[in-house]
C-alpha cells in the first residue's frame, strides 16, 4: 500500500487531461479482507470522476456496497463504503489510459462482530481504462483499503471491473493556423535603354530615385516615402502582420509560431521606421482577472522573442486585452481557438 500511495503523490507532479468534464463508472468486483474475520465477498457500486477542475489531480466520489459472511458461523453483515479520492491519469496511448488514485473514506457495518466497527479508512490503488468508443471504456482497478479497527490495522484488497461513461465535452487545443502569405521582396527597377546610335549626341538622363527607396521616380507611386520603410514594387511602404494562436491556458509558442515570429522580426529589422505594439487575447475560459494576466503573458512572450531576434526593445510595446475583444464565438471550441491569439499593430 505504501508503494501505491507514493506512486499517487509522484504522479501529482506531472501533467494530464481528460476530454470530458464528468465520468460515471458502475463497478462490480470482489473483496479479499485480511484480519477482519470476514470471508471473501462480492462488491458493487459506482464511481464518479470530476474533470472540470483546473488541476492534474481529479476528484472522484466512490460508493460501494457488499454483504459478507463472518467466519465460524457468526452471521453476515452489510458493508457500506464511501470515499473521496484524487485520480491522476498517466496519459492515453492506443486508447489505453492507466491511472493511480488515493484518498480517504468511511465504512459502516450492520453487524459488529469480532471487534469490527464503523471506521474511517485510507485507500490507494491503480487501474486502467480501455477505450471502446470515444465516450465508453472498460475500467479495471485494484484498490487497497487500510482501516483502523478497534486499535488494530485491517486491510482489504478490492479487485473491480466496470464500464466508464464520459460526458460533458471540453474545448480542445486548436489545429495549427496556416501561416500568412510571405512578404514579397522588392523588384529591381528596369535600367533605361541606351540612346539610339543614329543620334549619339543626345544625352539620356540617368534614372532618379528621389526618396532613396530603391524604386525609380517614374515607377514610384509613393515618391515621398520616408527613409527606413521597406517598400513594394510600386515604392509604397509595406506592412506585415503577425498572428499567433495558443493552446488553452498557455502562453507557449510552438515551432510553427517561432518561425512566424522570426519572419516578422526580419521585416522589422528591414523597416527601422516602424514600431510595433503586441496585443494578447484569450477566450472566455476562466475568470476575467486570470484571462487579463494570461493575455499580458502571451504578449510579453512574443515581445521577448522579437528582442532576441534583433529588434530593438524601444521599438516594441506589449499589452493584454484579456477576453474583451473576441473575433469569434466563445460558445464553440473552434471559436475559442480563434480567440486565443496574438495580434501586432504597426505604428510610425
Question: What report would you give on this structure?
Answer:
By secondary structure, this protein is of the alpha+beta class. It has 2 domains: 2-169, Porin (Beta Barrel), CATH 2.40.160.20; 217-347, 60s Ribosomal Protein L30, Chain: A (2-Layer Sandwich). The protein contains 4 helices and 12 strands. The strands form 2 sheets. It has an 8-stranded antiparallel β-barrel with strand order 1-2-3-4-5-6-7-8. A hairpin with a 2-residue loop joins strand 7 and strand 8 (152-169). The protein is rod-shaped, with a radius of gyration of 34 Å. It starts with a helix and ends with a strand. Residues 1-17 have low confidence and may be disordered.
Compose a concise summary of this entry.
It is built from four helices and twelve strands; from the N terminus they run αβββββββββαβαβαβ. The protein has helices spanning 2-11, 255-270, 288-308, 333-339, and strands at 20-34, 41-50, 58-69, 76-89, 96-109, 119-131, 136-149, 152-169, 243-245, 275-280, 316-320, 341-347.
Present the secondary structure layout.
Layout: H1 2-11, E1 20-34, E2 41-50, E3 58-69, E4 76-89, E5 96-109, E6 119-131, E7 136-149, E8 152-169, E9 243-245, H2 255-270, E10 275-280, H3 288-308, E11 316-320, H4 333-339, E12 341-347
Parallel strand pairs: 10-11
Antiparallel strand pairs: 1-2, 1-8, 2-3, 3-4, 4-5, 5-6, 6-7, 7-8, 9-12, 10-12
Helix pairs in contact: 2-3
Amino acid at each position: 500500500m505504501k508503494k501505491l500511495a507514493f506512486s499517487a503523490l509522484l504522479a501529482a507532479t506531472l501533467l494530464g487531461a481528460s476530454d470530458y468534464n464528468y465520468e460515471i463508472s458502475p463497478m462490480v468486483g470482489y473483496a479479499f479482507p485480511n484480519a477482519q474475520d470476514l470471508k471473501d465477498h462480492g462488491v458493487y457500486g459506482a464511481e464518479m470522476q470530476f474533470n472540470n477542475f483546473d488541476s492534474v489531480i481529479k476528484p472522484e466520489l466512490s460508493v460501494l456496497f457488499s454483504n459478507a459472511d463472518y467466519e465460524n458461523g457468526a452471521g453476515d453483515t452489510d458493508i457500506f463504503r464511501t470515499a473521496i479520492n484524487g485520480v491522476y491519469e498517466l496519459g492515453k496511448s492506443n486508447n489505453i489510459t492507466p491511472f493511480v488514485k488515493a484518498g480517504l473514506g468511511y465504512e459502516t457495518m450492520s453487524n459488529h462482530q469480532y471487534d469490527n466497527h464503523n471506521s474511517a479508512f485510507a485507500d490507494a490503488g491503480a487501474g486502467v481504462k480501455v477505450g471502446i468508443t470515444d465516450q465508453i471504456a472498460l475500467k479495471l482497478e485494484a484498490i487497497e483499503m487500510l482501516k483502523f479497527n478497534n486499535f488494530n490495522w485491517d486491510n482489504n484488497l478490492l479487485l473491480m471491473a466496470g464500464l466508464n461513461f464520459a460526458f460533458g465535452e471540453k474545448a480542445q487545443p486548436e489545429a495549427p493556423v496556416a501561416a500568412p502569405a510571405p512578404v514579397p521582396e522588392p523588384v529591381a527597377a528596369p535600367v533605361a535603354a541606351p540612346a539610339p546610335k543614329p543620334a549619339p549626341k543626345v544625352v539620356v538622363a540617368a534614372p532618379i530615385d528621389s526618396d532613396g527607396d530603391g524604386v525609380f521616380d517614374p515607377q514610384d507611386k509613393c515618391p515621398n516615402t520616408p527613409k527606413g520603410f521597406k517598400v513594394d514594387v510600386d515604392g509604397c511602404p509595406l506592412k506585415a502582420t503577425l498572428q499567433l494562436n495558443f493552446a488553452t491556458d498557455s502562453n507557449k509558442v510552438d515551432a510553427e509560431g517561432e518561425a512566424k515570429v522570426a519572419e516578422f522580426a526580419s521585416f522589422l529589422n528591414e523597416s527601422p521606421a516602424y514600431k510595433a505594439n503586441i496585443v494578447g487575447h484569450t477566450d472566455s475560459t476562466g475568470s476575467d482577472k486570470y484571462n487579463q494576466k494570461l493575455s499580458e503573458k502571451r504578449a510579453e512572450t512574443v515581445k521577448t522573442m522579437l528582442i532576441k531576434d534583433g529588434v530593438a526593445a524601444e521599438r516594441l510595446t506589449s499589452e493584454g486585452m484579456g477576453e474583451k475583444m473576441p473575433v469569434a464565438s466563445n460558445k464553440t471550441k473552434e471559436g475559442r481557438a480563434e480567440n486565443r491569439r496574438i495580434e501586432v499593430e504597426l505604428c510610425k
